[in-house]
Amino acid sequence: MEKVRIAILDLYNNAANEGMRCIRQLLARGAAEMGVDFQVDTFNVRAENKVPGLDYDAYISSGGPGSPLLAAESWEARYFSFIDALLLHNRTQPVKKHLLLICHSFQLVSQHLGVGEVSRRKSTSFGVLPIHLTPAGLAEPVFAGLPEPFYAVDSRDYQLTGLRPGQLAQLGGAVLCLEKERPHVPLARAIMAIRFTPEVLGTQFHPEADGEGMLRYMLTDERKQQVIGTYGEAKYEEMVRLLADPETIEYTESIILPAFLRRALGQLLPVAAA
């Protein structure tokens, strides 16, 4: 068959990051495992105001820095027009287009679709943290095989709370997981993943993060001093310990994005979806 075409929507605004490396690494691994060629094109959404058309087979929209609160910037209009076009395509066409939304993208689309309230947290959530599956999350095919709870890289100053169940139900969606339980904190637990539609999945955490690469990055002197200076030595040591554990980030990385690809491309590659 012809190459499978995958579009990455890069929302990092040219900021240095590990996310794009991790996404590309997983796509290269997925192509090898499925035995097909991936044509991967990247669209610099925020810095160059570029979005893909609907002529790709699957889409991944990345995390990114800064505030996700809507500011009527020119790139936002194009980005949301793409989201609306993809949703309309999936409602009206037999061959569906699957989209994975990560962190910043998850927050943007949650606001755009009106499923809840995105607001600034009282303090930054940062680290390798436990995430709890809801009943819908336990039944979610892309999360199949994850333990309860599972661990993921979380890095955010904002959060999605105040779910609007009616709006989510109209989309055919469901909340898949929540942040760690904090019984001593009288605040709502943030929503950490949503199945927006049968084809659109979003995560507040970073499912693309790889344990080995993130550990290597965390052990550099520059990053070590940065984390210790901001969050303290205990937080740094905890992150290093958890990143080195193959049952945390490395395991989550091996499940979510590969399963998303198999599901997204199943209509094209029935063997790979089996």
What is the subunit arrangement here?
single chain
Could you tell me how far the N terminus lies from the C terminus, measured between alpha carbons in angstroms? Answer: 18 Å
Total of domains:
1
* Beta-strand segment tally: 9
Number of helices: 11
Shape: globular
Strand order of the largest sheet: 2-1-3-4-9-8-7-5-6
What key phrases describe this protein's structure?
alpha/beta; Rossmann fold; 9 strands; single chain; nine-stranded mixed β-sheet; globular; 274 residues
Care to describe what's here?
The chain has 274 residues and is α/β, with parallel strands linked by helices. The chain has a single domain (4-209, 251-273), classed as Rossmann fold (3-Layer(aba) Sandwich). The protein is 40% helix and 24% strand. It has a nine-stranded mixed beta sheet with strand order 2-1-3-4-9-8-7-5-6, with helices on both faces. A hairpin with a 4-residue loop joins strand 8 and strand 9 (200-203). Helix 7 packs antiparallel against helix 9 (233-243). It is globular. The mean pLDDT is 91.
Short description:
Helix content is 40%, strand content 24%. It has 274 residues and is an alpha/beta fold. It has a 9-stranded mixed beta sheet with strand order 2-1-3-4-9-8-7-5-6, with helices on both faces.
